[in-house]
Design brief:
This protein is 65% helix and 0% strand. By secondary structure, the protein is an all-alpha fold.
Length: 201
Amino acid sequence: MTDRRQQTDDGLSEAEAIERAKQGDAEAFQALYDRHKRRVYSLCLRMTANTAEAEDLAQEAFLQLFRKIGTFRGESAFSTWLHRLSVNVVLMHLRKKSLPVVSLEETTQNTEEDSPKRDFGAEDLSLAGSIDRLQLQKAVESLPPGYRTIFVLHDVEGYEHNEIAGIVGCSIGNSKSQLHKARMKLRDILRIKRAEKAGKA
Protein backbone atom coordinates (compact mmCIF):
# COMPACT_ATOMS: atom_id res chain seq x y z
CA MET A 1 0.00 0.00 0.00
CA THR A 2 1.25 3.42 -0.83
CA ASP A 3 1.42 5.78 2.13
CA ARG A 4 -0.56 8.83 1.06
CA ARG A 5 1.66 11.05 3.20
CA GLN A 6 4.76 10.17 1.22
CA GLN A 7 6.26 13.02 -0.74
CA THR A 8 6.03 13.23 -4.51
CA ASP A 9 9.14 14.38 -6.39
CA ASP A 10 8.18 18.04 -6.19
CA GLY A 11 7.69 17.96 -2.41
CA LEU A 12 3.89 17.56 -2.41
CA SER A 13 2.43 14.85 -0.22
CA GLU A 14 0.28 12.43 -2.16
CA ALA A 15 -2.85 13.71 -0.38
CA GLU A 16 -1.99 17.30 -1.40
CA ALA A 17 -1.29 16.23 -4.98
CA ILE A 18 -4.67 14.43 -5.12
CA GLU A 19 -6.54 17.46 -3.77
CA ARG A 20 -4.78 19.83 -6.17
CA ALA A 21 -5.33 17.47 -9.12
CA LYS A 22 -9.05 17.44 -8.26
CA GLN A 23 -8.98 21.24 -8.67
CA GLY A 24 -7.46 20.81 -12.14
CA ASP A 25 -3.82 21.47 -11.20
CA ALA A 26 -1.82 19.96 -14.09
CA GLU A 27 1.46 19.84 -12.14
CA ALA A 28 -0.16 17.89 -9.31
CA PHE A 29 -1.64 15.44 -11.81
CA GLN A 30 1.79 15.09 -13.44
CA ALA A 31 3.27 14.30 -10.00
CA LEU A 32 0.68 11.53 -9.51
CA TYR A 33 1.36 10.23 -13.04
CA ASP A 34 5.14 10.16 -12.47
CA ARG A 35 4.66 8.34 -9.21
CA HIS A 36 2.29 5.63 -10.42
CA LYS A 37 3.01 5.19 -14.16
CA ARG A 38 5.45 2.28 -13.75
CA ARG A 39 3.09 0.28 -11.55
CA VAL A 40 0.09 0.88 -13.84
CA TYR A 41 2.10 -0.03 -16.96
CA SER A 42 3.45 -3.26 -15.42
CA LEU A 43 -0.08 -4.27 -14.37
CA CYS A 44 -1.33 -3.66 -17.94
CA LEU A 45 1.62 -5.62 -19.33
CA ARG A 46 1.01 -8.58 -17.03
CA MET A 47 -2.65 -8.70 -18.04
CA THR A 48 -2.19 -8.28 -21.81
CA ALA A 49 1.31 -9.72 -22.42
CA ASN A 50 1.69 -7.10 -25.17
CA THR A 51 3.95 -4.05 -24.73
CA ALA A 52 2.15 -1.86 -27.27
CA GLU A 53 -1.28 -2.66 -25.78
CA ALA A 54 0.09 -2.15 -22.25
CA GLU A 55 1.39 1.33 -23.17
CA ASP A 56 -1.96 2.28 -24.74
CA LEU A 57 -3.93 0.92 -21.79
CA ALA A 58 -1.70 2.63 -19.23
CA GLN A 59 -2.36 5.92 -21.06
CA GLU A 60 -6.07 5.14 -21.11
CA ALA A 61 -5.98 4.40 -17.36
CA PHE A 62 -4.47 7.84 -16.69
CA LEU A 63 -7.05 9.48 -18.98
CA GLN A 64 -9.73 7.77 -16.90
CA LEU A 65 -7.95 8.95 -13.76
CA PHE A 66 -7.94 12.52 -15.07
CA ARG A 67 -11.69 12.30 -15.69
CA LYS A 68 -12.57 10.49 -12.46
CA ILE A 69 -10.14 11.81 -9.84
CA GLY A 70 -12.95 13.99 -8.50
CA THR A 71 -14.78 10.82 -7.43
CA PHE A 72 -11.87 9.62 -5.25
CA ARG A 73 -13.09 9.88 -1.65
CA GLY A 74 -10.07 8.48 0.18
CA GLU A 75 -11.96 5.46 1.54
CA SER A 76 -9.07 3.28 0.37
CA ALA A 77 -5.46 4.09 -0.45
CA PHE A 78 -5.13 6.05 -3.70
CA SER A 79 -2.85 3.35 -5.14
CA THR A 80 -5.55 0.72 -4.49
CA TRP A 81 -8.21 2.88 -6.14
CA LEU A 82 -6.00 3.58 -9.17
CA HIS A 83 -5.13 -0.12 -9.38
CA ARG A 84 -8.81 -1.10 -9.60
CA LEU A 85 -9.45 1.63 -12.16
CA SER A 86 -6.54 0.29 -14.26
CA VAL A 87 -7.75 -3.33 -13.97
CA ASN A 88 -11.19 -2.20 -15.19
CA VAL A 89 -9.64 -0.38 -18.18
CA VAL A 90 -7.77 -3.56 -19.20
CA LEU A 91 -10.83 -5.77 -18.71
CA MET A 92 -13.00 -3.43 -20.80
CA HIS A 93 -10.34 -3.62 -23.55
CA LEU A 94 -10.25 -7.43 -23.38
CA ARG A 95 -14.06 -7.58 -23.56
CA LYS A 96 -14.07 -5.29 -26.61
CA LYS A 97 -11.65 -7.67 -28.30
CA SER A 98 -14.24 -10.33 -27.34
CA LEU A 99 -11.63 -12.73 -26.09
CA PRO A 100 -13.27 -15.97 -25.02
CA VAL A 101 -13.60 -16.51 -21.29
CA VAL A 102 -13.74 -20.22 -20.60
CA SER A 103 -16.93 -21.06 -18.73
CA LEU A 104 -17.25 -23.42 -15.81
CA GLU A 105 -19.61 -25.52 -17.92
CA GLU A 106 -16.72 -26.37 -20.26
CA THR A 107 -15.84 -29.81 -18.95
CA THR A 108 -12.43 -31.36 -19.13
CA GLN A 109 -13.12 -33.04 -22.46
CA ASN A 110 -9.95 -31.34 -23.72
CA THR A 111 -7.87 -33.64 -21.56
CA GLU A 112 -5.01 -33.37 -24.07
CA GLU A 113 -4.86 -29.64 -23.46
CA ASP A 114 -5.94 -29.28 -19.82
CA SER A 115 -4.24 -32.10 -17.95
CA PRO A 116 -0.54 -32.11 -17.20
CA LYS A 117 1.53 -34.26 -19.57
CA ARG A 118 3.27 -37.15 -17.84
CA ASP A 119 5.55 -38.36 -20.60
CA PHE A 120 8.73 -36.57 -19.56
CA GLY A 121 9.88 -38.99 -16.89
CA ALA A 122 8.95 -39.42 -13.25
CA GLU A 123 10.43 -36.19 -11.92
CA ASP A 124 7.72 -33.86 -10.58
CA LEU A 125 8.30 -30.53 -12.26
CA SER A 126 5.72 -28.45 -10.41
CA LEU A 127 5.60 -24.68 -10.15
CA ALA A 128 7.33 -24.92 -6.78
CA GLY A 129 11.09 -24.57 -6.65
CA SER A 130 13.46 -22.22 -8.32
CA ILE A 131 12.00 -21.30 -11.70
CA ASP A 132 13.75 -18.73 -13.77
CA ARG A 133 11.57 -15.60 -13.50
CA LEU A 134 11.90 -14.79 -17.18
CA GLN A 135 10.78 -18.30 -18.11
CA LEU A 136 7.81 -18.00 -15.75
CA GLN A 137 6.91 -14.58 -17.18
CA LYS A 138 6.98 -15.98 -20.73
CA ALA A 139 4.85 -18.92 -19.63
CA VAL A 140 2.27 -16.55 -18.07
CA GLU A 141 2.26 -14.47 -21.27
CA SER A 142 1.52 -17.58 -23.33
CA LEU A 143 -1.61 -18.46 -21.31
CA PRO A 144 -4.97 -17.94 -23.05
CA PRO A 145 -6.24 -14.42 -22.17
CA GLY A 146 -9.10 -15.58 -19.92
CA TYR A 147 -6.79 -17.79 -17.85
CA ARG A 148 -4.07 -15.14 -17.77
CA THR A 149 -6.46 -12.47 -16.44
CA ILE A 150 -7.63 -14.65 -13.54
CA PHE A 151 -4.10 -15.88 -12.79
CA VAL A 152 -2.66 -12.34 -12.70
CA LEU A 153 -5.51 -10.97 -10.58
CA HIS A 154 -5.33 -13.83 -8.04
CA ASP A 155 -1.74 -15.08 -7.89
CA VAL A 156 0.10 -11.88 -8.83
CA GLU A 157 -2.13 -9.04 -7.66
CA GLY A 158 -3.61 -10.86 -4.65
CA TYR A 159 -7.34 -10.44 -5.29
CA GLU A 160 -9.73 -12.93 -3.64
CA HIS A 161 -12.08 -14.99 -5.83
CA ASN A 162 -15.16 -13.02 -4.73
CA GLU A 163 -13.39 -9.77 -5.74
CA ILE A 164 -12.32 -11.26 -9.10
CA ALA A 165 -15.88 -12.43 -9.73
CA GLY A 166 -17.07 -8.85 -9.18
CA ILE A 167 -14.34 -7.30 -11.35
CA VAL A 168 -14.52 -9.75 -14.26
CA GLY A 169 -18.25 -10.41 -14.08
CA CYS A 170 -18.17 -14.17 -13.59
CA SER A 171 -19.12 -16.54 -10.77
CA ILE A 172 -16.74 -17.36 -7.90
CA GLY A 173 -16.76 -20.99 -9.09
CA ASN A 174 -15.76 -19.89 -12.58
CA SER A 175 -12.90 -17.81 -11.16
CA LYS A 176 -11.65 -20.81 -9.15
CA SER A 177 -12.01 -23.13 -12.13
CA GLN A 178 -10.09 -20.81 -14.46
CA LEU A 179 -7.33 -20.28 -11.89
CA HIS A 180 -6.95 -24.05 -11.49
CA LYS A 181 -6.78 -24.54 -15.27
CA ALA A 182 -4.34 -21.64 -15.62
CA ARG A 183 -2.02 -23.22 -13.03
CA MET A 184 -2.24 -26.62 -14.73
CA LYS A 185 -1.46 -25.04 -18.09
CA LEU A 186 1.47 -23.11 -16.61
CA ARG A 187 2.81 -26.30 -15.08
CA ASP A 188 2.55 -27.95 -18.50
CA ILE A 189 4.33 -25.12 -20.29
CA LEU A 190 7.15 -25.08 -17.76
CA ARG A 191 7.48 -28.88 -17.82
CA ILE A 192 7.80 -28.85 -21.63
CA LYS A 193 10.36 -26.01 -21.50
CA ARG A 194 12.45 -27.92 -18.96
CA ALA A 195 12.28 -31.10 -21.01
CA GLU A 196 13.42 -29.15 -24.09
CA LYS A 197 16.24 -27.61 -22.08
CA ALA A 198 17.28 -31.04 -20.73
CA GLY A 199 17.20 -32.44 -24.28
CA LYS A 200 19.61 -29.77 -25.48
CA ALA A 201 22.01 -30.28 -22.56
